[in-house]
Write a structure and sequence with these properties.
single chain, 7% helix
């Protein structure tokens, strides 16, 4: 089946571009965002988190935020996949996405461009290329510098996923005799004894638990494998990306970060940190793959986790 699309109304998000190739269904917001708000196998459930009631916001009523983006402006997570720039900085990371999005369709390539705020001077472009048959999407996360000055940033690709699944993140396989093989980064609110995480020998697993009282949790890793997966409701969502072992990455060398709270989990990949001259463009590419998985393994059963990971990451 060829890639087709149509315009639909979706929940509380207004119009979306609904795309399908018969094996994977995708919906991208056109009235707000943009967000890849829906991603599922044709007979499966949506892997993305949807903030239908707009509970997750930032900067509402804050004069500092309004001075950057305009009166009564504030940021809403909406859910799904979005593009940011790293390192994170308040309020400029939280670009409001409450206006219609310019979008185009050309064959199996779909391009989405939100409004650019002059105070930030960064143009974000989300480009999706859908495979003609497979549940495979190539995602180009693009930032272009229109600020008039040099910006030292990295493209940051965040997918906000529905709760109650299990994430699998590979540890570096490189084993130098005396030197470290990678870096693990923690945030101030991260409790390493949190019951949702299992620090395994080959993989770190992180459970997303809806309504948990345990608070937020985040870690980053030098993800030399360029792989991570999240299993939920019978579907594995796999992110693939290229990690440059000689690259300079944000947050002390992080090419992958993950965050969870009581509502969702985020799988975040990062491009290389570089100085962008005016007019320059930086592109960070991910591949998304969806696969059927009967159920997630017990995270403490490292043999079962490794067996599933090998199947998902090949």
């Amino acid at each position: 089946m060829a890639v087709t699309y149509q315009i639909e109304n979706y929940k509380t998000y207004g119009k979306v571009v609904a795309i399908t190739n018969g094996t994977v269904d995708i919906k991208v917001t056109a009235d707000v965002g943009p967000r890849v708000i829906y991603l599922a196998l044709a007979d499966g459930q949506n892997v993305m988190f949807n903030d239908d009631s707009r509970e997750v916001t930032k900067g509402k009523g804050d004069p500092i935020f309004e001075s950057a983006f305009g009166k009564d402006k504030y940021w809403q997570i909406y859910g799904g996949h979005r593009i940011w720039a790293s390192p994170e900085e308040y309020p400029y990371s939280y670009v409001p996405g409450d206006e219609p999005v310019k979008w185009t369709a050309e064959g199996n390539k779909f391009t989405f461009e939100p409004n650019m705020f002059p105070t930030l001077g960064l143009k974000f472009t989300l480009e999706l290329v859908i495979d003609n048959k497979k549940p495979l999407v190539t995602v180009n996360n693009i930032i272009e510098n229109h600020s008039g000055g040099i910006r030292r940033i990295a493209v940051w690709a965040l997918s906000v996923l529905a709760s109650n699944g299990l994430e699998i993140v590979p540890l570096p396989k490189e084993k130098p005799e005396l030197l470290s093989s990678g870096t693990l980064e923690l945030w101030p609110y991260t409790n390493m004894a949190d019951g949702r995480v299992h620090w395994g020998k080959e993989y770190i697993t992180l459970r997303s638990v809806e309504g948990t009282p345990d608070g937020a949790f985040k870690f980053g890793i030098t993800n030399t494998a360029g792989r991570a997966a999240y299993i939920n409701n019978g579907t594995a969502f796999i992110k693939k990306f290229t990690h440059n072992k000689h690259g300079n990455y944000p947050d002390h060398g992080m090419s992958f970060e993950t965050y969870t709270n009581d509502k969702f989990i985020e799988m975040e990949t990062l491009g290389e940190l570089s100085e962008m001259l005016p007019g320059e463009t930086s592109v960070h590419t991910e591949q998304w793959v969806l696969k059927k998985v009967a159920k997630a393994p017990n995270p403490k059963n490292e043999a079962a986790v490794a067996k599933l990971a090998e199947r998902l990451f090949k």
